[in-house]
Here is the input.
Amino acid sequence: MDYFNYKDGELHAEEVAISELATHVGTPFYCYSSQTLARHYRVLANSLEGCDFRICFAVKSNSNIAVLASLGRLGAGADVVSAGEIRRALAAGISADSIVFSGVGKTRDEMAFALDHGIFQFNVESQAELHILNEIALSKSQIAPVAIRINPDVDAITHAKISTGKKDDKFGVPIQQALELYAQSQQLQGIRFQGISMHIGSQLTQLAPFRQAYSHAAEFVKTLRAGGHIISVIDAGGGLGIPYCEESEPPLPHDYGAVVKEIFAPLGAKIILEPGRLIVGNAGILVSRVIYSKYSHERRFIIVDAAMNDLMRPSLYDAYHAIVPVSEAHNATPLTPADVVGPVCESSDIFAKDRLLPDFKPDDLIAFRSAGAYGAVMSGTYNTRLLIPEVLVNGAQWSVVRARPTYEELLKCESIPGWV
Ligand SMILES: *Cc1c(COP(=O)(O)O)cnc(C)c1O
Here is the structure.
């Protein structure tokens, strides 16, 4: 459920008319709803009531510091995958002791930075990484709190590009090998093993893969404990999917939480969840304006001012985003198939193919729904298009939380050497 609804014939974000934002900010832009963020956070948090848990929001899904600050206020920590994301979480007021650091390729500098700030946990993904982390911690006379990220070898049943927990995926350590890593704890004086972690994929639309992975993990925790290890943290990762279209019905957060609770609560460890998409996906839309519409070889094309550089998901993983008119009156016009495309000079700059849509005319405003996760964060400046603004709404208030840069700012990072 979200707070993007029609009121008086106009699409609103909470109490704010999208057309009003478009007039002030210019298109295209992202718009996020605070109340939707809060709602999603609370639904998940409520599902774990009674457990010792923390929701560490996956910063990579939406790293705007106003979004992070909003979630931080509600009690969220952060799951980060780079030193840059640690900086963002800290800038948003999220305390270091609720930051977990994931990712297969942490550099020495990033580890040092994270240690200096005293983060809660490193989710380590290989023996090589573990040894480097040990070395760096020792050089600073510190002890790094670690969970090994296990690869439980389950099929997440999701798009191949967002599966992370099968044995062929680059993420995590096979359970057998993880056991050997924990066994080295005596030799690694700079490491304190405090838990285990996992993350099996994204946009999961079934509970079975979670259940399977979590059961393997629970067994593993028992094995580790039997071997004398203190395992006080279980990081269950993120990955629960959201409904991008009306027909899809992913599991409810409440039912997902019930599985987490059922499998992990008896182990009496602190439970960490790392949701990204679930919290922020449906809390954001991308607003765009129609530039032209044209017919070519009988196909209808709607050319809009947003493009693949602003929202990459459709070209990257054939993702579906519902497209709705900002003015409700369009919904009364007959729907006919159209391709919705951006201005970028790539054939893959397509948001939708053969989508049944109203008779959009130039200057009409449209909105791509469910664009809050993996939208703005993946954007770039291809075709020398400026990064687009992000607007955060709360009730009747709104603010531009990332301004559109100027062309001067874009060009000033580049220079022409004297020898050219
Ligand atoms: C991407 C990622 C997440 C978040 O995934 P969602 O599908 O957005 O919930 C959580 N943990 C790790 C380690 C990730 O890489």
The CA atoms of residues 161 and 317 lie 7 Å apart. The pocket of pyridoxal-5'-phosphate is lined by residues 58, 60-61, 79, 102, 199, 202-203, 237-239, 274-278, 373 (CB under 6 Å). The two ends are 56 Å apart (CA to CA). The first strand starts at residue 4 and ends at 7.
